[in-house]
Write a structure and sequence with these properties.
Length: 878
């Protein structure tokens, strides 16, 4: 190597300028060969000033220049890791301006890389190399001021206040702790070694950087160093070294001093001056660096690499691996929390991730309820809502293990788009580990939870909609009016409860029979039932579909053969026991045993399904699936809306309605419903709607809202038996007047007159004359033409039976008529008159057919699985 060391400089700031001046002051030892700046004009201006021939606009070009021996890093501290590692990887020695790095992890990365490459690296702490500081070290070593007890250091300055300046901009590593305070920490460490304790306070400015910092460092021999650093205070840069026999006053500026005064006990103060004429001070630092390089040393004895890294280590970060692990953890969290990365991965996971289930070891599923999912695999965008809910329940019950997976290349592509890896980077391996850790420990588990949550929410919303649709159809089941009904609530040990009700729903007689095992008192039960049929003229028997229902059906089918025109019907008894134990049942049937009330509820359900079903919590009616797994608040809100919608659609006979039914009328809640019934019980039946205003709590607004949904049959005003609201009564009477008829006219005469009126005048013209809207006018016409019309009358009546089937009677290919009992996401369950409902899968339902609970359809038997109790159905004629 020649005597001259060839230098390159990265950065053209104030300190870089001073360092370039210093190199030009020692041409016999140094040649400034190249400068790097992101701006060509800046590079040229710097090059012209210092006679630099090679002027680069890319820092990488400086590092790659084969003629350069060492690079001085004069860029902001936040870029030191990037620039130092780049230079070392190009085989260049490095002198890096302070602060060496912004944390322990970065410092250790640079130190390790320099040692791995066997290259010189040093932090540019120029203060240590000034002749005055060299002299101080000698004085302290000789004990001239006795035992050294500490130092007070002030580094107060007031640079121009500019938030874009490196002193104030956090993005450029701003703050006095990393800048001027580091001089004092470095000087103290060079004298006393590593501090054993540090206490500090800081004042932060509007940029978020520490504008002032005060530190107290304690060293192993009890020395205390008090350091005050500020970038918003009047200039003061003095320092004093205290000893047991004297002190050394380092005159301002202490970090680049030319004078000091030595005070020794019993002696006159001695002014020591070591001028640096012609030098700016950086020459001493440069000479140390070049001397080390010429001697083949990779670090300076005055400013070692360990010393550069140690200030950043702590009791929590004691080793390099801990530092690496900490860095990886931080990087992993940053990667995992990156919004765009999460967005892309989540979108992909919602569409192409794969859900896999398998049966857990040592688990029990005796009825093989989840057999279809013991070994199941499907892409999530093809997963059906009922599958999601079934898998969730099986997982909750401990039957299945569930996992999601996403192809590795998918998430890696999303991550690398924002966190690209540079193979030539010294920490690319660490970043790779951090990415894998981020994906497997943080990102993917979080995304998979999001996917499961999204699938569940979608499935639950779908289940709630199906539940609501089924409830709507159930509540709109047409009444079987005019029947005297025998209700049977089957049971084995406790017997079959019996209740006879008249066509108005009034209980006539109750009892208990035992037509099924274990007692099997068939003849006694037949005699009792036969007597009831004859005594009350029973025209319909209704059997609840609970325990023992099919045995009870066999008993009933045999009995009704003795009677002409007597039919039976099996209905869903869900909720009957809930009603039996309710306060409402206690008030309606106060003298009846709780066990018998269920039979009354079952019988009443065919006479007026709506009036009876509203007495029961909709969730207990058994017309949905996985209802206990759903969001209960959401389900309750939806079902309540359905009940209120149907009740208001059908209307309520105010003189017979229960509080439960009235409570669902718009504007009427449970409290007011109770008061209406109490008023009716005390004052007698309502004769006209206006009487409702006399009910305590019934205000004018509530009356206007509710009255149109309340009917009074055979009342004073025939319009009270329509859905016309009171505020539209004047318009309704005006229509009748224009039609030339009285309100008391029979419906047929009224209908003919209204038809004639509609021919004479258009709805639009008539609405304008009456000052009402066209929809309101049409409603008035419809209600006047058909007062008291029940929309349920247009729906098909329930399918009545006179015989019974068993699964043994079914054969593949048989065609049967059945009643839809439940509609679910994957099809419909159909009552065929056997113990088990058949499943008509959605793939077997013709396109455009919208099945509803209660529909009567023809189906074909496709297969029968007696062991699992399953019947597969097809659409008749397929």
């Amino acid at each position: 190597m020649s005597d001259q060391i060839k230098w390159g400089i990265l950065g053209t700031g104030k300190i870089a300028t001073r360092f370039a001046e210093a190199l030009n002051n020692i041409p016999e030892h140094a040649e400034l060969l190249a400068v790097g700046s992101r701006n060509q004009d800046t590079a040229d201006a710097f090059g012209d000033k210092f006679n630099i021939s090679r002027r680069y606009t890319e820092y990488e070009q400086v590092a790659a220049d084969p003629d350069i021996d060492i690079i001085y890093i004069g860029t902001p501290g936040v870029y030191h890791l990037r620039d130092v590692t780049m230079s070392l990887n190009q085989g260049k020695h490095v002198l890096c301006e302070k602060a060496f790095s912004i944390n322990a992890k970065q410092a250790q990365i640079m130190v390790d890389l320099a040692r791995e490459k066997n290259l010189f690296l040093m932090e540019a702490m120029w203060t240590r190399f000034f002749p005055i500081h060299v002299q101080i070290r000698e004085l302290l070593k000789e004990g001239v001021i006795g035992k050294t007890n500490g130092i007070t250091i002030n580094f107060l300055a007031k640079p121009a206040y500019d938030l874009k300046n490196r002193f104030f901009d956090l993005n450029l590593g701003a703050g006095v702790l990393l800048d001027t305070a580091s001089y004092g920490v470095s000087w103290a460490s060079s004298l006393f070694g590593e501090p054993e304790a540090v206490t500090g306070l800081a004042s932060f400015g509007e940029s978020g950087a520490d504008y002032q910092t005060s530190l107290v460092l304690r060293f192993s021999q009890g020395q205390l160093v008090c350091l005050m650093s500020s970038q918003i205070s009047y200039d003061d840069k003095d320092a004093i070294v205290f000893g047991s026999k004297g002190k050394i006053v380092v005159h301002s500026p202490w970090y680049k001093p030319v004078k000091m005064t030595l005070h020794v006990e019993g002696k006159d103060p001695e002014l020591i001056s070591l001028p640096i004429d012609g030098y700016n001070g950086y020459e001493y630092e440069a000479m140390e660096v070049m001397g080390c390089i010429k001697e083949g040393k990779t670090e300076s004895d005055i400013m070692t690499l360990d010393e550069a890294a140690k200030p950043f280590l702590s009791t929590q970060v004691k080793t390099l691996e801990q530092a690496w692990q900490g860095a990886r953890d931080i990087a992993a969290e940053i990667i995992s929390d990156h919004p765009e990365t999460r967005k892309v991965v989540r979108k992909k996971a919602l569409s192409i991730s794969t859900l896999t289930t398998e049966m857990k070891e040592d688990t029990d599923d005796p009825k093989q309820v989840y057999l279809d999912y013991y070994d199941f695999k499907l892409q999530v965008n093809r997963l059906r809502p009922h599958q999601t809910l079934a898998i969730n329940r099986a997982e909750k019950e401990g039957v299945l293990k569930v996992k999601l997976s996403l192809p590795e290349q998918i998430w890696q592509k999303a991550v690398s788009a924002h966190f690209p890896q540079n193979p030539s980077s010294p920490f690319s391996g660490q970043l790779s580990k951090a990415i894998n850790d981020a994906a497997k420990r943080l990102l993917l588990p979080s995304i998979y939870r999001d996917v499961r949550r999204a699938l569940t929410e979608k499935a639950e919303d779908h289940a709630v909609q199906i539940f609501a649709k089924n409830l709507h159809a159930l509540l709109l089941q047409p009444p079987l009016a005019g029947h005297t009904v025998l209700g049977l609530d089957p049971g084995y040990r406790t017997g079959c409860k019996v209740a006879v009700i008249d066509p108005t729903g009034k209980p006539l007689q109750t009892g208990v029979i035992y037509p099924v095992p274990p007692r099997s008192q068939i003849e006694k039960a037949r005699d009792f039932t036969r007597e009831l049929i004859r005594k009350y003229g029973i025209t319909l028997i209704v059997i609840g579909n609970g325990t023992g229902s099919r045995e009870t059906e066999n008993f009933t089918a045999g009995l009704i053969k003795e009677f002409d025109d007597l039919k039976y019907l099996i209905i869903n008894e869900a909720g009957a026991s809930v009603y039996s134990a309710s306060k409402l049942a206690g008030r309606e049937l106060p003298d009846m045993d709780v066990s018998l009330r269920g039979a009354v509820s079952i019988a009443r359900r065919v006479q007026d399904p709506l009036a009876e079903y509203v007495k029961i919590d909709p969730k207990s009616l058994g017309v949905g699936m996985y209802q206990h797994d759903l969001d209960q608040a959401k389900l309750k809100r939806k079902l309540t809306d359905v009940v209120e919608s149907v009740v208001n659609q059908v209307g309520v006979e105010i003189n017979t309605a229960s509080p439960a039914l009235l409570a669902h009328i718009s504007g009427i809640g449970p409290g007011l419903a109770e008061r209406i019934v109490s008023y009716r019980d005390d004052k007698g039946l309502f004769s006209e709607r206006d009487e409702l205003l006399e009910v305590p709590g019934m205000g004018e607004k509530t009356y206007q809202q509710a009255a149109g949904f309340l009917r009074i049959r055979e009342g004073v005003n025939p319009i009270d038996d329509t859905a016309i609201h009171p505020e539209s009564y004047p318009a309704a009477l005006a229509v009748l007047d224009l039609a030339g008829i009285q309100v008391e006219e029979k419906p047929k005469i009224r209908q003919a007159a209204l038809v004639e009126l509609s021919r004479d005048k258009s709805a639009k013209d008539l609405a304008q004359d009456l000052k009402v809207g066209v929809p309101t006018l049409i409603d008035i016409f419809n209600q006047l033409a058909k007062p008291g019309r029940d929309p349920r009358e247009d729906l098909p009546k329930p399918f009545l039976r006179s015989d019974v089937l068993s699964m043994d009677d079914l054969v593949q290919g048989m065609e049967l008529q059945g009643t839809v009992q439940n509609v679910v996401e994957f099809g419909a369950f159909v009552d065929l008159g056997v113990k088990q409902d058949g499943l008509l899968h959605r793939t077997k339902i013709p396109a455009g057919v919208d099945l509803n609970l209660g529909n009567i359809i023809r189906v074909t038997i496709l297969s029968i699985d007696k062991e699992r109790g399953r019947i597969s159905l097809g659409w008749a004629g397929d």
